Amino acid sequence: MSGYIGRFAPSPTGLLHAGSLVAALASWLDARAHGGQWRVRIEDVDTPRCIAGAGEAILAQLAACRLLPDGQVWWQSRRGEAYAAALQQLVTAGLAYPCGCSRQDILNALAAQGALPPRHGERVYPGTCRNGLHGKPARAWRLRCEPAGLLSWHDRRLGAQAQDLCAEVGDFVLKRADGLWAYQLAVVVDDAAQQVSDVVRGEDLADNTPRQIHLQRALGLPTPRYLHTPLVLAEDGQKLSKQNGAQPLKLDQPIDVRKALRTAADALGLASLPGDDDTAAPADWLAQAVSAWRALHAP
Q1: Each residue of 26-70: pLDDT tens digit?
Q2: Is 65 annotated among the ligand-binding residues?
Q3: Are residues 11 and 50 in contact, defined by beta-carbon separation less than 8 angstroms?
Q4: Where is the Glutamyl/glutaminyl-tRNA synthetase class Ib catalytic domain (predicted)?
Q5: 49-58: long-range contacts at Cβ-Cβ below 8 A with a sequence spacing of 24 or more?
Q6: What is the mean pLDDT of the chain?
Q7: Strands 159-164 and 150-155
Q8: 145 labelled as ligand-binding?
Q9: Are 171 and 142 in contact (CB under 8 A)?
Q10: Residue 50 is assigned to a ligand binding site
Q11: HSE-CB of 162 using CA atoms within 13 angstroms
Q12: Residue 205's closest CA among 14, 2, 17, 23?
């Protein structure tokens, strides 16, 4: 049996749209092309942004597209004990520390250093609380970003990648000031717990990869292989997302499902598949798509 395990991990802040279906289809195709398993994890750890019922609706959308997970669906909102154990491991090892800085505190410190980021740029944490809270109450927990220097990795589509994590990100948050678990910690802990060997996701998440690799190393966890898929862009050239008005997929009729899958396949470079017409059965179409994916991304 193949040791490959892939996953699709949507956030239930809305339903699947054209961009998120690209990531779902790519991760499913990669798992099937490798003869492996495909897991689904609902990343609902950021509870204030989650929409009631959206997780279940996403699962129904995936089922309509015949993208069915192997095994039980995981929900991050039920995984708090695992995240707490990981944080405690890091604290005990001296790799994580409490931070009392507000967003404004960080901006003020960066301004004093003449290092204010550009609009929408990364706020590189200046390390204010690295050596103590200086009388401030603890608000969040951060991971120490060390040693300095380039962190390099290989992306199966993008090729060689590198980032100076300390200079470009700084010590990043593991547990937020509002008490919620940060995305980086939750995804790393869950990928390891689900024995994920390959992460296939949108290119917009590529800049999260060095943070996750650093955290994997700190926790003594394996690093999966990564493949970041092309982004689907809106008419204004921005990434198609829920934030900029991406519409939920309409999947009520078989023709809607075929159209959505063909559009996603086209974005992945799988245009003109054999049997790609309005009469093709979903199972037959998906089998052809697996073969085409295998030809582009050979195991």
Answers
A1: 999 999 999 999 999 999 999 999 999 999 999 999 999 999 999
A2: no
A3: yes
A4: 7-247
A5: 49/11, 49/13, 50/11, 50/12, 50/13, 51/12, 51/13, 51/14, 54/12, 54/13, 54/14, 54/15, 55/12, 57/12, 57/15, 58/10, 58/12, 58/15, 58/16
A6: 91
A7: antiparallel
A8: no
A9: yes
A10: no
A11: 7
A12: 23
User: Can you say whether the dihedral through the CA atoms of 167, 99, 221, 212 is positive or negative?
Assistant: negative
Which amino acid makes up residue 93? A
**Cβ neighbours for 49, distance < 8 A, ≥ 6 positions apart:** 11, 13
What is the mean pLDDT of the segment spanning 146-162? 93
Length of the chain: 299
What is the separation, in whole angstroms, between the first and last Cα of the chain? 14
Which DSSP state fits 181? B
Overall average pLDDT of the 175-194 stretch: 97
Question: Which DSSP string do the residues of 99-135 spell out, in sequence order?
Answer: E---HHHHHHHHHHTT-PPPTT-------TTTT--TT
Q: Is 291 annotated as a binding residue?
A: no
> Is 43 assigned a ligand-binding role in the annotation?
yes
| Residue 156, annotated as binding a ligand | no
CA–CA dist 134, 111 (Å, integer): 20
b/e map 205-231, b = 16+ CB within 10 Å = bbebbbbbbbbbebbebeebbbbbbeb
pLDDT digits (tens, 9 = 90+) for 214-258: 999 999 999 999 999 998 866 555 666 666 556 889 898 888 998
